[in-house]
Amino acid sequence: MPSFVLSHTAAVFPLHGGGVRAPSEVFAQIFEVFLLLGTAVGVVVVAYTMYHALKYRDDGGADPYADKVERPQMGEMPTGGSGGRKVFYSFSISAIIVVSLIAWTYSQLLYIEQGPDPAQTDALEIDVEGFRFGWEFAYPNNHTTNTLYVPQDRVVRLQVTSRDVFHNFGIPELRVKTDAIPGQYTSAWFTANETGTYEAKCYELCGSGHSLMIAEVRVLPQDEYESWYNGTEGSTGSGNQTAANGTETATESADLAAPTASAAPAATAGGVGA
Amino acid sequence: MSHDHGLPPKSSVSRWFLTTNHKDIGVLYLITALFFLVFGGVLALLFRLELITPGADLLGQMGYNQAVSTHGLLMVFWFISPFAFGFANYLVPLQIGADDLAFPRLNALSYWLYLFSGLLMGVSFFQGTTFAGGWTMYAPLNTPAYIPGEGLGATSVVLALIMFTAAVTLGSVNFLTTMYRMRAEGLRMRDIPIFSLSINLTVWMMLFAFAALLAALMILASDHILGTTYFQYSIDGTTMATDADNPGASLLWAHLFWFFGHPEVYIVFFPALGVMAECFQTFTGRRLVGRKWFIISMVLVAIQSFVVWMHHMFLTGINLPIKTIFMATTIGISLPFDLMVFSLIYTMAKGRVRFTTPFLFSLGALILFIIGGITGVFLGAIVLDYQFRGTYWVVAHFHYVMVAGATALFGGLYYWYPKITGKMYNERLGQIQFGVYFLGFNLLYFPMFIAWETPRRVFVYPESLQIWHSMATVGGFILGASFLLMFYNLFVSLWRGEDAGDNPWAYATSAEWAVSSPPPLENFPGVPSYATGKLEFLDDETVAERTERASGAGHGHAATDGGTAADGGAVTTRAAATATAMEPAHETAGEEHASHASFWPFLVSLGGFVTFLGLSGVRTGSVVYLSMAAIGGLVTFGSLFGMTREPFHAPEMAIAERWPFSSVEKMKLGMWTFLASDIVLFGAFIGSYAFVRVAYGWTAWHHDLIPAEHVTMPGLINTYLLLTSSFLVVLAMVAAERESKRGTVAALVGTFALGVGFLINKGLEWQHLFHIHSEAFPNGWNLSTNIASSTFYLTTGLHGAHVTIGLIICAYMAVRAWNGAYQGDDRAIEYFGLYWHFVDIVWLFLFPLFYIL
């Protein structure tokens, strides 16, 4: 088992176009290891349980352990049985597996939390605002859409909030997800290595239209994205954007205090891209 | 023995309304919980049918949301815990050697509050729409602004939950007092059977966790009914995140809810673990391996359960250090369960394993729990948790854990059915039911792991996952059908079953199996004792002998007539706790027969039901609702008063093991435990205030939200008034001790006057603030003005309600003192004093928080 884990840790940092390891790969790798190990542990423990249950079943004959063990008596003061040492051995093994697995994932968590080094990646910053029942995306030029357009192979940083109730923004295929909480900002990042159309969904019950609260996500080749983005310039933007072209780094997760007003999305619902 | 206890026979319907006997109440709990299982189960089948195909063509969008929300609420609150507490009621006194619970009428009151809270939940379906915001009730979807229509059904659900929580809190106080004061001689805490131990830890968790939930629910009910704005982040209509009126609203609910919600997982699972351990011991013919470590593991989990809640909130933007801490505590809390699982597995070694129905369910529960546990470790890895959040992975995981618990409890039903009914069911049919159940369970929940990408609580999912959802639906119906077998089997066996005898199971050891099936009304043929290391029943002579020997140690008090207390219709449940904790206790150790019948608990709960139903609609101004609230309040008040005046004998045991509370009298212990939960209640209110204030900005809060007219002076005066009144209660005790009737009455009247002064002063202050006309607050500063006014009025209002209840008790005691009560025995005054001092201390926290800082 350890060699298996090692072979995976060796492959922790395969570089992709854009030089950034996508969250979806991090997830896929950890999930795979957990699935394999979890299944193995599950099979072993359940089999072990069944083995005990069947091996020591009462076949109606005489008690084969009559002279070895003392059976519980009615009205006795409860005490423990023998065999505590085996419990501890098994417990220790299980504890080692669990703790080492989680410890291994912790380094990956740090990567997901901090994101790729901002100096190396020219992140695109997009504000996401959830509402009943849809999503609004605000780009650095203040342009807003209800479909999320992002370039391929570029780190996208999302600042997510809600204008009404508690939502949760997730794009399952790209393995990005974060809560959309009214009055708060949370952040998340992802990169998409493949162009195509994906879905963003709401993962927190938000009312009658919750099931249908789906937004389209279009991952475009970089040049196509640029031309789309340039076409939006000035169409709805106020023009005094300080965070133009995503050079401003996102602040740490959700500060209780809201970020600067300039980063706030335009309040107009809908948008040109819708 | 069945004479003069005032209880009709079991065949009579009236018995079931009157009974305060723990076994009867246990049976009532079991049947009621099974009813709610069917209720919640049918809702589940409805939405599983909906999910056969993607799209809301059966229930409609809101219908679907209502079904999933109420399914969760019913199963978690009204089925699984009460089902476990059916067994706890029936068995804990038997297992520890007690005649009944410490406060039998309080126990009946718990049951009736539970039943009526469930009925109120049922009524909510007929008030337009019921609650549709998920069982986690996230804010602000849980506030009227986001509830379609009038939203009265949702308010009823919140009130029903409050009523349920009241039942739980009274039950916790009762069980803790019982277990610490009424164990058979020689039975140390660690020696009580593992099921009773699991209940002990469960009620400890309940006492604190449900107090936090109560705070959350009271605040939510106030948002619904009184118009406070705790869970509304936008009050003036602007929805910009940068300009929120109450930016902490959503997260406040999440914190309060999960602070309760995670211990709740163990509250649900512990009794099941206890049942599993009992069944494993009996049906393997082996003692629990590593029993000591099993118990230590449970204690660790119970304590640690209060520091893992934020793992439900990993995506809410909490920072990395806190995430790391909660990841560590989460992994830490999973490890003791590994030990318990292995302990159960090794208990089978060298055993005589018999695959009876209860053992099959226990073994099945263990296997399901192993799967639930392993899939839970996935969630402990935060990177995975992020993606599992809000998906079917979570749904599948917690059903494998929680329904594994229910599986063990069904095993418990088969295990103790012969004890409870005296009859044996059809064993073959029981085993068949297990087969169908186990198949249905796995067919229902396992495909959810495969279809885990489906978001929770949606009726739309990708076509590619349809096969798994259809499979789950089929599994759901198979699981449901298995219960028809169980109900048939258990129902028919009531008449056709063979007599089970005292103990149908070889190797059962605990005391419930040493008495007849069903056990006699007062449980044991003599006084149970483990003094020799083995269960014996002592005759009266031996008891008398030992009592005399122990009398120096302070056992067997003289008769107390410490009757006091009554109610305050407004906060009925709090009052009920106080009233019953002070019920007249004629303790003439064993001389008089214990009482077993009282109609008041039913009436109090009925009154509470009508009151709450009325409250759910008062905001519409409807006469029907208003009069229901008024009439219900009167009934509650009247029956609480009746309950206090009713002579009811619950004798303390002549000899009992009472560590670590041997010197704390029964009522006092009850009062202490009750106040412990009250501390958490106020703690949650104060914590909520601090949380929303920090979220808003601690100093900006004062500047933006609080009018200049809100001055310190009224609070300062009130501080002096309360402190002085506390001093007077002490004087009343001293006077009673010295048998000075005039002194006692004077001190109590003085206390009362100062308390009334406090309320008048507060009333004047509020009146003034309501009607100020300043530039910043042209329309006064009332409950709905802003989040600061909401926190101020609600928190100090809760305190004011405590003062009011105290004053009613105080007035009642003053009248009794005038008639000559308490002279030479100041204990009743002491209990009241404990409460009163507590209320004062709370004020000492509230005053600086709301007037100075």
Automatic annotation (TrEMBL), chain A:
Main location (coarse class): membrane
InterPro entries recorded: CcO_II, CcO_II-like_C, Copper_CuA, Cupredoxin, Cyt_c_oxidase_su2
Q: Where is the Cytochrome oxidase subunit II copper A binding domain?
A: 121-231
Query: Which terms does the UniProt entry file under GO BP?
Result: ATP synthesis coupled electron transport
Electron transport as a keyword?
yes
Please name the GO terms that the record assigns under molecular function.
copper ion binding; cytochrome-c oxidase activity; oxidoreductase activity
TM stretches of this protein: 27-48, 87-106
Q: Which UniProt keyword terms apply here?
A: Copper, Electron transport, Membrane, Metal-binding, Respiratory chain, Transmembrane, Transmembrane helix, Transport
As for membrane topology, the entry says: Multi-pass membrane protein
Metal-binding found in the keyword field? yes
Q: Return the Gene3D superfamilies for the record.
A: Cupredoxins - blue copper proteins (2.60.40.420)
- Compositionally skewed regions (Low complexity) per UniProt: 257-274
Give positions of region: Disordered. 228-274
Q: Name one Pfam family in it.
A: COX2
Cellular component terms (Gene Ontology) = membrane
Can you say where in the cell this protein is located? Answer: Membrane
Mark out the compositionally biased spans (Polar residues): 229-252
Family note: Belongs to the cytochrome c oxidase subunit 2 family.
Name of the protein in question? Cytochrome c oxidase subunit II
Q: From which source organism is this entry?
A: Haloarcula salina
Q: What is the lineage of its organism?
A: Archaea, Methanobacteriati, Methanobacteriota, Stenosarchaea group, Halobacteria
Name of the coding gene = coxB
From TrEMBL, chain B:
Keywords on record: Electron transport, Heme, Iron, Membrane, Metal-binding, Respiratory chain, Transmembrane, Transmembrane helix, Transport
The record's section on PROSITE patterns has:
COX1, COX1_CUB, COX3
Annotated region (Disordered) at 546-567
According to the UniProt entry, its GO molecular function terms are: cytochrome-c oxidase activity; heme binding
- List localization entries: Membrane
Please give the InterPro entries that the UniProt record associates with this protein: Cyt_c_oxase-like_su1_dom, Cyt_c_oxase-like_su1_sf, Cyt_C_Oxase_1, Cyt_c_Oxase_su1_BS, Cyt_c_oxidase-like_su3, Cyt_c_oxidase_su3-like_sf, Cyt_c_oxidase_su3_a-hlx
What Pfam family does this protein match (any one)?
COX1
Q: What is its main location?
A: membrane
Organism equals Haloarcula salina
Quote the biased-composition stretches of kind Low complexity, using this chain's numbering: 550-567
Name of the protein described by the UniProt record: Cbb3-type cytochrome c oxidase subunit I
Source organism superkingdom: Archaea
Q: Where does the chain cross the membrane?
A: 25-47, 67-91, 111-132, 152-176, 197-221, 252-273, 293-312, 324-347, 359-384, 396-417, 429-452, 467-488, 599-618, 624-643, 672-696, 716-736, 743-760, 792-814, 834-852
Q: Does the keyword S-adenosyl-L-methionine apply?
A: no
Domain annotation Cytochrome oxidase subunit I profile: ranges: 10-531
Q: Which GO terms describe its biological process?
A: aerobic respiration; electron transport coupled proton transport; respiratory electron transport chain
| Cellular-component GO terms for this entry | membrane
- Report the family membership: Belongs to the heme-copper respiratory oxidase family.
Name all Heme-copper oxidase subunit III family profile domain ranges: 588-853
As for membrane topology, the entry says: Multi-pass membrane protein
